[in-house]
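Let's do one together. I've listed all components of the complex below, 810 residues spread over two lines.
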Amino acid sequence: MFMPMKMDVKGLLTKEEALFRLFEKWQPDIKVETIPIEQSKGRILAKNIFALYTLPVVRAAIMDSVALSSNDFENGMPDTSLWKRGVEYDFADMGDDFDDRYDAAIRVEDVSFSADGTICINDDVKVVPGMGIKAKGDIVCEGQLLLTKGRKIMTTDLAVLAVGGITEIFVYKKPIIAIIPTGSELIARGTKPERGQNIDANSIMLENMLLEMGAEPLCYPIVKDDPKMLSESLEDALVRADVVVVNGGSSKGSEDFCTKLLHGRGEFLFHGVARVPGRPLGMAVTDGKPVINLPGPTVAAFNGTDWCLRAIVARILQSRIEKRPTVRAILTEDLCTPMPMEYMARLNITKGEDGCFYADPLSKSRDFVVRSIGANGVFISPIGFGEYLKGTEIEVELLCQEEYI
Amino acid sequence: MFMPMKMDVKGLLTKEEALFRLFEKWQPDIKVETIPIEQSKGRILAKNIFALYTLPVVRAAIMDSVALSSNDFENGMPDTSLWKRGVEYDFADMGDDFDDRYDAAIRVEDVSFSADGTICINDDVKVVPGMGIKAKGDIVCEGQLLLTKGRKIMTTDLAVLAVGGITEIFVYKKPIIAIIPTGSELIARGTKPERGQNIDANSIMLENMLLEMGAEPLCYPIVKDDPKMLSESLEDALVRADVVVVNGGSSKGSEDFCTKLLHGRGEFLFHGVARVPGRPLGMAVTDGKPVINLPGPTVAAFNGTDWCLRAIVARILQSRIEKRPTVRAILTEDLCTPMPMEYMARLNITKGEDGCFYADPLSKSRDFVVRSIGANGVFISPIGFGEYLKGTEIEVELLCQEEYI
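Okay, and this is what the predicted structure of the assembly comes out as:
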């Protein structure tokens, strides 16, 4: 039987409203920088790029060729018995230039040589001026527009830049995003947990999510639930970063100083969004920088980062928000959703022997938490929706390539 | 009018036959290594991963809570006027453990405090043992299978590994792929070309394509068309790398020593494939390692790397060959193809005001070469096909994210 959870949306902003409120109050400080092309993959161009050189500089053979003068063929196939390399003909491999006396290039396969080295040209070859030759500028022309502002540099663009003679490009600077993990119960990953302790699994995930978005993460050590220590880290991050993420302490507990701290420092924008998991997400603008108080549970932190930080980073980088690949999959169990909230469900997607994709909401799974964190699929249930019964086909975003399902 | 080029496929292998021939003669040397989880994104697991610890170690509050003893509620709501924090109740923020005397946790929102600090519990709260508590192992259990061999580590898996107490994982070692650019006409990128010179644009592109595939590229300096120098670089690469790519000199010109060199060193497998651009691709197995002689033109080098090195790297890494995202697009011009070869066309994809995608085969473009190198789309015409008229809808692979079209 389908059992929706009930949650209250009163006083909560939708994620669109939340971002709108931020973008009203905060204008990103768009910074640019010059970087070598070797580091430019995935970066966003801040200026149009024009070629510096013309290639071929003069000309080049298209194939592995023999270069000839078309004059010699004006009256049909000439007698080549006395021809000498470097006089009447020369070799020109693919991409090679050749002496100005030659104005045509025939394929090396169309000639043969007798035992004494005399060249012989196949009878069916017709030699006309310019044949087999890549002319000046056929590869690239000086001043030619190669790549336009706003382009995200693809791997193949690296060859375009190299061909154009470009060594450095002007791109939008990666925003520095500080991540401050908070919680007295947290211990650094790699430490054995004692009673009452929990491992900080978020920092490594958030760091890598931010890297994928094109940002530069700046991870702080874990801060205990102590207002003074949290304040110190926040102040440090506000100096060093473009955006500050305080992860944890976003809820209403006795130790949740963060909300209080942000209220007393800069302009507090809101606390609570109608998108779960991660409802108690808070946001402020402090010293002209967004400060995001991201909920602590890992799946909530993932969700908040996905909709909120992705949008903020794209705004700073002038980049597009990239959709994930999707598949249609059949629910193997009813999906419990916290109606009427927008809900990001984590689902495990498998491929059946029938070739169909199946989506497991993991609700019956023991160790639900770690299985949700590692689930390879994401399903977004919009506000007001939430009834998805076993057997329903839904569109699922993939966190891995389809080939790994 | 549609004008297919004519090319001869006699004596050429299909790409499938070419790979089959290689895989018959060469068994990859599967190497594994232990790496810190911080470097593990995108790597392929060589062993199953099991959790080292149980979390919560004992228990944790699900929400920001007040911890209580359910005994006190056996006869209904108790008198809390003399209750003291640390005796009859305590605070437990989300994720916190609490003293053994308490066996239930209610939401902090369900209590209030009078002016003198007395706790007051909302009347409608029902307290039962275990409520609001994440039990031992609800996050993760010691010995639990977390991730299976063959998985490609996703960003969210990093959190799974951290939660499980894992600091290092066992993965397939990245194959080292040597890239040796050859050609007397080539100059290093960033150098001004003189007459007869061409800029090496391939190395930076191939290096980044290999990085994307999960390999470790090892770029050599440009080698002139000199058999001794090429031989020296090849011998060095055969010692240092798992696979050697000689880029250029694959054709039949007078300076194309590479084919000759490979014939005299190890087992030469074939020269020429029925996939263009890049027909004169050659392959040998030398000292138990694949040596690929990749054609020099940039689009041909891209094509050869895409079908050939991708398959070789996947075989060494035990990984899957990942498809690119695709869109359906309408041809804006006839697409000239070298029938009956398999053909990789590079197309520029744009989005029309009608929301449709359009594919420009660039055939009418001046500077065809640089525009093809930078084109954002790829279309594969299978062997035996090749007639694609203006207005035809074709399925195009994208080299960029759809949002950037």
